[in-house]
C-alpha cells in the first residue's frame, strides 16, 4: 500500500517522546505529515524521535509543554503555527498515572494532578485545535484523536481508579465535542488501548504488569505501541471520513 498523500498536513502528538506517542509520530511522518513531537521532561527522547523522522526525509520538531499548564499548551500551538503551519490533526496522547493503590488511600493532590494532565490538558488542546481547524476561524477541518484507555470501561480496581476515571472523562469529551464540531468538518474519535507493552507501567510501580495480566486477554498477549498507532492513524486518515464520536478498542478482546 502506498503512503497516503496528505499534502504536507500538520499533526501535533502530545506525549510523543516514548511509547504510543512516539509510534504515532513516526507513523505519521511516514505518511507525509509534518509532526510536532510534544514532551514534558524527556527532551533527549523527543529529539531522538525528531531525528529519526528527519533522517527518513520527514519534517518534525520537538516542543516542550506541560499539558497541565494552560499557557504552555497555548504556546505549543503558537509554536506550531509559526514553524509548521496550521494544525490538521491532533493526537491527545499525553497522560500520567501514579503508583498502584486503592481509592481509600488516594489523596486530593494526586487526584487533582492526574485530572489536570489527563482531562484539563486534553480539553485545552481540543479547544486550541478547534480554534484553528474550524472554517469560521479560517481552518479547513481536521481530525482529533483522543488516546483513552480500556481502564475507562474496566475501572482499574485496586490499581488506578483515578486514572480510569480521567479516561472516562476523556471518552465523554470525545463524544460531546464530536457532535459540537462535526458540521465544521472536524472529526473527533478515540482509541482505547488495553494492556500495551510501554514504559508507562513502570510509573505505576510494576514494569511487568502486562505479562502478569496477559492471561486475562482473549488473545493471550499484550499489544504493541505500533498496533495502537495504526488505529490512531486510520482515524486521522480520509479512510475514516464518515467516522466521528467513535472508539477503537485496541485491547486483544479484553
UniProtKB/TrEMBL annotation:
As recorded in UniProt, its EC number(s) are 1.-.-.-, 1.1.1.47
Which top-level enzyme class is recorded in the Swiss-Prot or TrEMBL entry? Answer: oxidoreductase
| Keyword Oxidoreductase included in the entry's annotation | yes
**Which keywords does this chain's UniProt record carry?**
Oxidoreductase
Q: Which GO terms describe its molecular function?
A: glucose 1-dehydrogenase [NAD(P)+] activity
Q: List the CDD domains.
A: SDR_c
Give one Pfam hit by family name: adh_short_C2
Which InterPro entries does the annotation name? NAD(P)-bd_dom_sf, SDR_fam
- Oxidoreductase: is it a keyword of this entry? yes
Matching NCBIfam families: PRK06123.1
Show the PANTHER family listed in the entry.
OXIDOREDUCTASE, SHORT-CHAIN DEHYDROGENASE/REDUCTASE FAMILY (AFU_ORTHOLOGUE AFUA_5G02870) (PTHR43639), SHORT-CHAIN DEHYDROGENASE_REDUCTASE FAMILY PROTEIN (PTHR43639:SF1)
Family classification = Belongs to the short-chain dehydrogenases/reductases (SDR) family.
> Which protein is depicted?
Short chain dehydrogenase
Amino acid at each position: 500500500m502506498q503512503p497516503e498523500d496528505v499534502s504536507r498536513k500538520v499533526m501535533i502528538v502530545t506525549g510523543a517522546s516514548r511509547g504510543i506517542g512516539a509510534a504515532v509520530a513516526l507513523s505519521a511522518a511516514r505518511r507525509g505529515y509534518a509532526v510536532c513531537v510534544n514532551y514534558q521532561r524527556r527532551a533527549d527522547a523527543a529529539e531522538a524521535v525528531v531525528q529519526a523522522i528527519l533522517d527518513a526525509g520527514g519534517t518534525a520538531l520537538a516542543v516542550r509543554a506541560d499539558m497541565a499548564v494552560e499557557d504552555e499548551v497555548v504556546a505549543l500551538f503558537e509554536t506550531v503555527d509559526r514553524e509548521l503551519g496550521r494544525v490538521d490533526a491532533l493526537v491527545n496522547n499525553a497522560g500520567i498515572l501514579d503508583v498502584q493503590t486503592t481509592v481509600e488511600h488516594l489523596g486530593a493532590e494526586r487526584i487533582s494532578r492526574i485530572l489536570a494532565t489527563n482531562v484539563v490538558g486534553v480539553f485545552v488542546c481540543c479547544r486550541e485545535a478547534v480554534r484553528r481547524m474550524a472554517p469560521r476561524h479560517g481552518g479547513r477541518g481536521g481530525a482529533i484523536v483522543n488516546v483513552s484507555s480500556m481502564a475507562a470501561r474496566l475501572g482499574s480496581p485496586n490499581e488506578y481508579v483515578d486514572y480510569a476515571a480521567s479516561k472516562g472523562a476523556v471518552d465523554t469529551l470525545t463524544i460531546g465535542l464530536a457532535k459540537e464540531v462535526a458540521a465544521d468538518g472536524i472529526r473527533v474519535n478515540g482509541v482505547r488501548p488495553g494492556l500495551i507493552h510501554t514504559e508507562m507501567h513502570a510509573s505505576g510501580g510494576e514494569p511487568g504488569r502486562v505479562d502478569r495480566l496477559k492471561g486475562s486477554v482473549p488473545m493471550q498477549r499484550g499489544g504493541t505501541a505500533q498496533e495502537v498507532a495504526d488505529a490512531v492513524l486510520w482515524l486521522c486518515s480520509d479512510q475514516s471520513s464518515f467516522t466521528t464520536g467513535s472508539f477503537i478498542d485496541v485491547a486483544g478482546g479484553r
